[in-house]
Design a protein that fits this description.
The complex is a heterodimer of chains A (496) and B (508). With 496 residues, chain A is α/β, with parallel strands linked by helices. Helices cover 37% and strands 13% of the residues of chain A. Chain A has an 11-stranded mixed beta sheet with strand order 1-3-2-4-6-5-10-11-9-7-8, with helices on both faces. Chain B is an alpha+beta fold. In chain B, a hairpin with a 2-residue loop joins strand 1 and strand 2. In chain B, 42% of the residues are buried. Classes of the chains: A alpha/beta (496), B alpha+beta (508).
Chain lengths: 496, 508
């Protein structure tokens, strides 16, 4: 048998396509076949995709093969989270309220991928409007973890993570508001990066919480993540919050193999109670490896991180209560109308029918938190906590180059285990949320297994120092792979 | 007391004798920028519905706003012209409420961090005894926001109640607006006039700044008028205010305040309370009526707009704009009073006729101020009335008028001939000199030619000539008339008179 193209890294595929050893069409077809073989349906299989755009994918591959479009990732397949608009292709954000909507415009991320010849295979499943940590809040049924199909793939970018872990795509774009790239990456054994806030344009990213949302890469290797990061990052005049500064050299940083002189802080507050022993064991082993690589590892305290979760659950719902107001049946999406209803009645009936329980919970929470008389006590106070958390980071970065912690307190839990307990579900993001509140850069890297399931290590770096994530991540990945003799993902049983 | 509809009114003078009117004005100005506040769509008025739209101004999922720098500069310019402080740092906020013509169901506006604060505009009003009084209207804030779309209710009366369906045009959604909010103004019985003059003066100022076309009828200037009454007893607090929406002419602003004063006074006299509400003004009857009542107080849940970074308008740009501020209309009028001797009435008439700039330009070209004023106001004003066009759109320029007046001044044309010359220019017969030549309008300057005509007239009317010769100078009238007739009106009547007298009596 010839090489299974779906097993290759994005870097390898790009090189082979560029060298014409393999055509982009063959690569696209191999991945489309893999999707057909393992993705299944809402009831069974990985269910990573909500929509597969085979025609669009093959059309792009043909353009790459004809030399009409080129770029570092030309012809490499990619799975796009359904929260990003793609012209003419159904985009739902995991919600019934947008069922059937075909956007008339491309998100900047989508446009950059297209102009670089990346083959977009389709749109991936997610928790509705990116609110959740398991994809169980998707209106279209959950995705499943390729390591164990009875378990959650994480969320909200669970479909993107599941697609990459299941070899349906070597790359995926996710978005991360409180950990929605890093937590799925951790529980699926992948590399996932939340770039610095403002590093990747939010134009065309259907907003959950505008001040926290950030798109970023999911991949099977640190280098692949860097290649995708470089392809989508950079200033965009269509996003006022986009940073007008050069993108750090994330690809170059991946050549790092030793960490002598690098100061690494272990965040004391992100361990202990609530963290599974197996998770802590894998994390501590990885920290030892960092020491072996020459890093100076020291404990660091970030005392206000304890308040990150409550602050997040005031800020994010507040912003979402306003961001989701536009889904009113007047211009697009679902419309529920009974008889001679007024516009207000149509709006109410549509939102009642079109939003799921978690979305309604957060809209109501946010509406309350912003209400006159409560604003200062809730939203205002949460913003103050946010400032204190940012100062914790700033103080820490005076002494260390990066901070590390476990990405999640637990490994992938069984589907259904936490759907009736929102507070338990929210705990999944306890370690990842501080980076969103501070707007800094953060990566999850697979470092080992606990009870046969992947454990992620989180690396955090100051805003605009995204390259540090890749330097530390690449060195650690290389050392762990060398110790193991193979990548962590190679230990996953094949689905086929 | 009189009754209008169901409302009982107190005579205005009686009302203000017992209560002190307090007014406040909120004026929305559509800026004249080429593109919308937060996207690149055109702002042209009157385009086909929903043709100037994009993902951002339609509020499509994922679309984001980006700030129009020209709109911010206009807002700063307005603030500076109103003597406001410009914030070193300010933000936008979201005003959340659901309405079908609002694409995002929130409006990007400014809340507790407006771009300009604490200014004033002085307005001059005439009091009942003919004096001019200057009233300072304090400005609380100047802030930026985006306009909403426009709903068109089909069927029924055109209002939302009884309509079969509604259409929405999003061309207006996202048009940049600046809202100018006054502090409470205590103008006593002058309140209605102060309200009107303030809006008029503000409009004039905005026109001078060239930031808006300022058309009330097209909605590019919209005015909400708050009115309340306070008993004329020491230390009485402000009364409950009503807000009269979208008053669409200067005169209506004045009428709306007058009506509210009379209406509220009647309520207070009867021991009832004024309800805090939005009211609509009716042009035909000059009355106001309640808008849809709000059962509960609206909570807009303002919070800082996370999609837009804060604005830090650079201090040096503020100073550059301040240095560029044009002369205010008030200063301009003061200068004209001083330099040209124009009265307030003159200025009001010239402004009303829209010829003030033309008159000033005519004077700058050498014309005598009074003559320039008269020709633009009377002669061209008459032509403007006849044609229905503005006096400045008749094909007559300040240069034409200045030339005609120069010819009058040097005796080449009489007043009557000047009007004929103007008629020629109006008729498109060319410039002034061409018209004078073609119509042969110049006065007969040659005394010997004139003497020949006089001699023949005297010969034809010997009896009349004899009376004059006998000392009755008043009898010269018919002789002068005959000479003027014989010359086709081109002689200078005064000169004719003196030549006749010297011919008949040997002296003037």
């Amino acid at each position: 048998m010839v090489t299974d193209l779906t097993r290759l890294t994005a870097a390898d595929l790009a090189a082979r396509i560029a060298a014409r050893e393999v055509s982009a069409v063959e690569v696209a077809e191999a991945h489309l076949e893999r999707i057909a073989a393992v993705d299944g349906t809402a009831e069974a299989g990985v269910h990573a995709f909500l929509h597969v755009d085979a025609d669009g994918a093959l059309a792009n591959a043909r353009r790459v093969d004809a030399g009409e479009v080129s770029g570092p990732l030309a012809g490499v397949p990619l799975a796009l989270k359904d929260v990003l608009t793609m012209r003419g292709v159904p985009t739902t954000s995991g919600s019934r309220i947008l069922e059937g909507w075909r956007p008339p415009y491309d998100a900047t991320v989508t446009a950059r991928l297209k102009s670089g010849g990346v083959t977009i295979l389709g749109k991936t499943n997610m928790d509705e409007f990116a609110m959740g940590s398991s994809t169980e809040n998707s209106a279209y049924g959950p995705s499943r973890n390729p390591w164990d199909l009875t378990r959650i793939p994480g969320g909200s970018s669970g479909g993107s993570a599941a697609a990459v872990a299941a070899y349906e795509a070597p790359l995926a774009v996710g978005t991360d508001t409180g950990g929605s790239i890093r937590q799925p990456a951790a529980v699926c054994g992948l590399v996932g990066v939340k770039p610095t806030y403002g590093g990747v344009s939010r134009y065309g990213l259907i907003a959950f919480s505008s001040s926290l949302d950030q798109a970023g890469p999911l991949a099977r290797t640190v280098l692949d993540a860097a290649l995708l990061h470089a392809a989508v990052a950079g200033y965009d005049p269509l996003d006022s919050t986009s940073i007008d500064a050069p993108v750090p050299d994330v690809v170059g940083a991946c050549a790092t193999r030793d960490l002598r002189g690098t100061r690494v802080g272990v965040v004391s507050e992100l361990s202990g109670d609530g963290y599974e022993p197996g998770v802590l064991a894998a994390f501590e082993a990885a920290v030892k490896t960092l020491t072996v690589l020459g890093a100076d590892v020291v404990p660091v305290s970030c005392p206000h991180f304890a308040y990150a979760l409550p602050a997040y659950y005031l800020i994010a719902p507040s912003e979402c209560s306003s961001n989701l107001a536009r889904f009113d049946a007047m211009r697009y999406g679902l419309r529920v109308q009974h008889g001679d209803a007024s516009a207000e009645q149509v709006m109410a009936a549509t939102r009642e029918a079109g939003f799921g329980a978690e979305v309604k919970r957060r809209v109501i929470l946010g509406t309350y938190a912003l209400s006159s008389g409560y604003y200062d006590a809730y939203y205002g106070q949460a913003q103050k906590v946010r400032t204190l958390i940012t100062r914790d980071f700033e103080a820490a970065y005076e002494n260390v180059d990066v901070l590390v912690s476990p990405t999640t307190p637990t490994v992938a839990f069984p589907l259904g285990a936490k759907v009736d307990d929102p507070m338990a579900m929210y705990q999944s993001d306890v370690a990842s949320i501080p980076s969103n509140l501070a707007g800094n850069a953060s990566m999850s890297l697979p470092v080992g297994l606990s009870e046969g399931l992947p454990v992620g290590l989180q690396i955090m770096a100051p805003p605009l120092a995204d390259d540090r994530l890749y330097r530390v991540g690449a060195a650690l990945e290389a050392a762990l792979d060398a110790d193991r003799g193979h990548s962590l993902l190679a230990e996953m049983r094949d689905l086929a | 007391m009189t009754t209008v509809g169901s409302a009982t009114l107190v005579d205005y003078d009686e009302a203000v004798a017992r209560y002190e009117p307090v007014i406040g004005l909120e004026t929305h100005v559509e800026l004249g920028t080429a593109t919308k506040m937060f996207c690149g769509c055109a702002t042209d008025f009157g385009a086909e519905p929903n043709t100037h739209v994009c993902p951002t101004c339609l509020g499509l999922p994922g679309a984001l706003p980006t700030l129009n720098g020209a709109a911010v500069r206009s807002a700063v310019l307005i603030g500076l012209a109103l003597h406001c402080d410009v914030a070193a740092w300010c933000r936008f906020a979201r005003k959340n409420y659901f309405y079908p013509d609002m694409p995002k169901n929130y409006q990007i506006s400014q809340y507790d961090e407006p771009i300009c604060t604490d200014g004033y505009l002085d307005v001059e009003v005439a009091t009942a005894d003919g004096e001019t009084r200057t009233v300072r209207v304090d400005i609380e804030r100047v802030h930026m926001e985006e306009d909403t779309g426009k709903s068109l209710h089909v069927g029924g009366s055109g209002r939302i109640h009884g309509a079969t369906h509604s259409l929405v045009d999003f061309n207006r959604a996202g048009i940049p607006l600046v809202e100018i909010v006054t502090k409470p103004v205590e103008a006593g019985d002058l309140a209605p006039l102060v309200a009107r003059t303030y809006v008029q003066e503000l409009a004039e100022l905005l026109r001078t700044l060239d930031v808006s076309d300022v058309r009330l009828e097209q909605g590019s200037l919209r005015c909400d008028v708050n009115t309340s009454l306070r008993p004329r007893t020491a230390g009485a607090p402000y009364g409950t205010r009503t807000e009269t929406k979208n008053v669409n002419s200067y005169r209506s602003v004045e009428r709306a305040v007058r009506f509210e004063v009379s209406r509220q006074a009647a309520l207070l006299d009867a021991g009832e309370r004024v309800v805090q509400e939005t009211r609509h003004f009716h042009e035909d009857s000059g009355t106001t009526s309640p808008g849809r009542s709000k059962e509960e107080a609206t909570d807009y849940r303002y919070f800082p707009e996370p999609d837009l970074v804060p604005i830090a308008f650079p201090a040096e740009e503020i100073e550059a704009l301040r240095a560029r501020l044009p002369e205010t209309p008030a200063a301009f009028r003061a200068r004209l009073r001083e330099a040209y001797g124009f009265t307030d009435l003159d200025l009001e008439q010239l402004t009303g006729a829209g010829v003030l700039d033309a008159v000033v330009e005519t004077i700058a070209l050498g014309a005598e101020p009074g003559a320039a004023r008269a020709m633009w106001l009377s002669d061209l004003g008459k032509a403007a009335n006849e044609t229905g066009k503005p006096a400045t759109d008749l094909g007559v320029t300040p240069a034409h008028v200045a030339r005609i007046l120069a010819l009058v001044a040097d005796g080449t044309l009489t007043a009557a001939l000047a009007r004929q010359a103007l008629d020629g220019v109006l008729a498109g017969e060319g410039d002034v000199d061409a018209v004078v030549a073609a119509r042969d309008l110049a006065v007969v300057a040659d005394d010997s030619a004139l003497q020949e005509v006089i001699d023949s007239v005297l010969a034809a009317q010997p009896d009349t000539a004899e009376k004059v010769r006998g000392g009755n100078q008043n009898a010269a009238g018919p002789l002068i008339g005959a000479v003027m007739k014989a010359t086709g009106g081109k002689a200078d009547a005064a000169k004719v008179r003196s030549l006749i007298l010297s011919t008949l009596t040997g002296g003037a």
